[in-house]
Structure formats: structure tokens, C-alpha cells
Amino acid sequence: MKRLSAVFLATAFAAGLASVAEAKTLVYCSEGSPENFNPQVNTTGTSFDAARPVYNQLVEFDRGTTNVIPGLAEKWDVSEDGLEVTFHLRHGVKFHASKSFTPTRDFNADDVLFSFNRMWKDDNPYHKVSGGAYDYFSDMGMPDLLKSLISRWTSPRSSRLNMPTRC
Length: 167
Hints:
single chain, alpha+beta, 5 helices
């Protein structure tokens, strides 16, 4: 009986330690190996699925539908002519911190502009990082769709399009 109690205690202790380790470690199971964890250069569903829990998006799809719902943008306005979309960004969004990176500020419109311009503008100093191929962005026609991206203090981020949006 003492032996059985000792085995039970050891098992319970090990299970307790495992749950502590799980709280500090992200475990991700997938049908294949992601090519990377950078959604800007991903081209496979496996890679997008792996990166999705790590990165937030301006807008997202309501699960199982094509309904667009808020993400980092808490709301957005589309101009009457359909050529301008203004995203109103959530406040207080924090970046992930690590041993090698400590964010000094919250997420803002400059981060959105950086992400888009990195993919869109060949002369962006970070365009060639990771090879400079942004297939998903390009295949969706974003370089031809976008006319300008601006940041305003009254409207955190505004996009001017070459053709009307259908949202």
C-alpha cells in the first residue's frame, strides 16, 4: 500500500510539474512543418496556421464565415466613393517581449504603415529582408489596389485605394 501511495504521489507531482511547464511553453501541433513564422512571406496554409496565434491582424474573419470583424482596428469607415478606408486602431495593444526585445511603446499607426510599406514599396529599407518576396500580398493585387497610406492623429490610419472597395 505504501508503494502504491508513493507511485500515486510521484505521478501527481510529475503531472503538477508538467502543468507548470505548459504554462510557459507554447506547444503547437500541425499536419506539417511551417516554412517560417513570418506571415508577410508565408505561402502555405501550414505556415499561416502556425503564425496566426502569434500575430494580430487589422481585421479578421468571423470564424466559419466571410464576415469581417474587428482585430487591431476596433472599427473602420469607408468613404462614400469607396476609395478611402480609415481604420480606428485599438489603444493599449502591447508587443510581445522576449529576452532580446523589450518594447518601448504600444502598437500604433506607424506599425501598420511599416508593415504595409515593407511589402509594398521596393525602396523600403526592410523590403529585401527575408528575400523581399511577398507573394500573398502581391497575389491579392494589393500593390495595384493601394494608392497611398497615411497616418493621421485624428484618424489613426487611412488607405486611399485605386478602385472602390466592396466591404
